[in-house]
């Protein structure tokens, strides 16, 4: 069972990119972020033609999250994070797929720092930590997948970078991510590839894609049962090189289930 996460950065304008990836890689479950489309604009028919059923929570212009399942229907359990500080922003959806609880999240960026956007990022993270702890305590097989907007360590971005002071690297952001891992979640990409670059994001600015100056901010965290079934993980870098691509590439895990 292959579970992927992909910040599509506008599902309507990048539907061809999404379609090319789905047709080539055929993941079983996909978590999408930054739909940037309201509920009615979601391309349901186009995805169903590819064999994918979907659950989504849209938002015009910004945000928006979705869970796709190949030849299955996601059974929605939540369309908002409990205790979420601003429910007008579509950042969380949760569904059961083939016996696995899938959480799809788009954690706030938090820039500029300091300021209200960074305060909101940390408040959202606190609500997510509380819910993740409850999910862990339930003993259910869970995958927390999405764009976390956190670079966990200096090994997770290019050397001699220019991101100093950015909210993605702030000590508070990294500490919150570590608290999540301390609950017992496994960072699946690093579990399979403990060393080396695993970039999932390359800014459109300053030729960072052709220069391979990337960051790892898209993560799939697994509960103990899922972690014990983990067989592979990776990043489909080729998607970032497509015409009119998102600034992210899909990250994925493979589990024996």
UniProtKB/TrEMBL annotation:
<dbReference type="GO" id="GO:0006281">
    <property type="term" value="P:DNA repair"/>
</dbReference>
<keyword id="KW-0464">Manganese</keyword>
<feature type="site" description="Important for catalytic activity">
    <location>
        <position position="218"/>
    </location>
</feature>
<dbReference type="Pfam" id="PF03372">
    <property type="entry name" value="Exo_endo_phos"/>
</dbReference>
<feature type="active site">
    <location>
        <position position="106"/>
    </location>
</feature>
<dbReference type="InterPro" id="IPR004808">
    <property type="entry name" value="AP_endonuc_1"/>
</dbReference>
<dbReference type="InterPro" id="IPR005135">
    <property type="entry name" value="Endo/exonuclease/phosphatase"/>
</dbReference>
<comment type="similarity">
    <text>Belongs to the DNA repair enzymes AP/ExoA family.</text>
</comment>
<dbReference type="InterPro" id="IPR037493">
    <property type="entry name" value="ExoIII-like"/>
</dbReference>
<feature type="binding site">
    <location>
        <position position="149"/>
    </location>
    <ligand>
        <name>Mg(2+)</name>
    </ligand>
</feature>
<dbReference type="GO" id="GO:0008311">
    <property type="term" value="F:double-stranded DNA 3'-5' DNA exonuclease activity"/>
</dbReference>
<feature type="binding site">
    <location>
        <position position="147"/>
    </location>
    <ligand>
        <name>Mg(2+)</name>
    </ligand>
</feature>
<feature type="binding site">
    <location>
        <position position="34"/>
    </location>
    <ligand>
        <name>Mg(2+)</name>
    </ligand>
</feature>
<dbReference type="InterPro" id="IPR020847">
    <property type="entry name" value="AP_endonuclease_F1_BS"/>
</dbReference>
<feature type="site" description="Interaction with DNA substrate">
    <location>
        <position position="248"/>
    </location>
</feature>
<dbReference type="GO" id="GO:0046872">
    <property type="term" value="F:metal ion binding"/>
</dbReference>
<dbReference type="InterPro" id="IPR036691">
    <property type="entry name" value="Endo/exonu/phosph_ase_sf"/>
</dbReference>
<keyword id="KW-0378">Hydrolase</keyword>
<feature type="binding site">
    <location>
        <position position="248"/>
    </location>
    <ligand>
        <name>Mg(2+)</name>
    </ligand>
</feature>
<feature type="active site" description="Proton acceptor">
    <location>
        <position position="248"/>
    </location>
</feature>
<keyword id="KW-0479">Metal-binding</keyword>
<feature type="domain" description="Endonuclease/exonuclease/phosphatase">
    <location>
        <begin position="4"/>
        <end position="248"/>
    </location>
</feature>
<dbReference type="GO" id="GO:0004519">
    <property type="term" value="F:endonuclease activity"/>
</dbReference>
<dbReference type="GO" id="GO:0003677">
    <property type="term" value="F:DNA binding"/>
</dbReference>
<feature type="site" description="Transition state stabilizer">
    <location>
        <position position="149"/>
    </location>
</feature>
<feature type="active site" description="Proton donor/acceptor">
    <location>
        <position position="147"/>
    </location>
</feature>
<keyword id="KW-0460">Magnesium</keyword>
<protein>
    <submittedName>
        <fullName>Exodeoxyribonuclease III</fullName>
    </submittedName>
</protein>
<feature type="binding site">
    <location>
        <position position="247"/>
    </location>
    <ligand>
        <name>Mg(2+)</name>
    </ligand>
</feature>
<feature type="binding site">
    <location>
        <position position="7"/>
    </location>
    <ligand>
        <name>Mg(2+)</name>
    </ligand>
</feature>
């Amino acid at each position: 069972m292959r579970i992927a996460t992909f910040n599509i950065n506008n599902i309507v304008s990048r539907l061809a990119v999404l379609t090319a990836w789905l047709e080539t890689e055929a993941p079983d479950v996909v978590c999408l972020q930054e739909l940037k489309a309201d509920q009615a604009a979601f391309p349901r028919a186009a995805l169903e033609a590819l064999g994918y059923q979907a659950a989504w929570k849209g938002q015009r212009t910004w945000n928006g999250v979705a869970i796709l399942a190949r030849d299955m229907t996601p059974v929605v359990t939540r369309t908002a994070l409990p205790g979420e500080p601003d429910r007008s922003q579509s950042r969380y959806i949760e569904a059961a797929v083939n016996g696995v609880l899938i959480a799809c999240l788009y954690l706030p960026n938090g820039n500029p720092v300091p300021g209200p956007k960074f305060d909101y990022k940390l408040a959202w993270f606190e609500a997510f930590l509380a819910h993740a702890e409850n999910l862990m305590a339930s003993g259910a097989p869970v995958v927390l997948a999405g764009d976390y907007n956190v670079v966990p360590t200096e090994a997770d971005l290019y050397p001699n970078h220019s991101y100093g002071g950015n909210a993605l690297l702030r000590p508070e952001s990294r500490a919150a991510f570590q608290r999540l891992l301390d609950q017992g979640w496994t960072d699946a990409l690093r579990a399979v590839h403990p060393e080396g670059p695993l970039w999932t994001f390359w800014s459109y600015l300053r030729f960072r894609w052709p220069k391979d100056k990337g960051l790892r901010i898209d993560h799939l965290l697994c509960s103990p049962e899922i972690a014990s079934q983990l067989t592979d993980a990776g990043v489909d870098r080729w998607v970032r090189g497509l015409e009119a691509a998102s600034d992210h590439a899909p990250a994925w895990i493979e589990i024996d289930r």
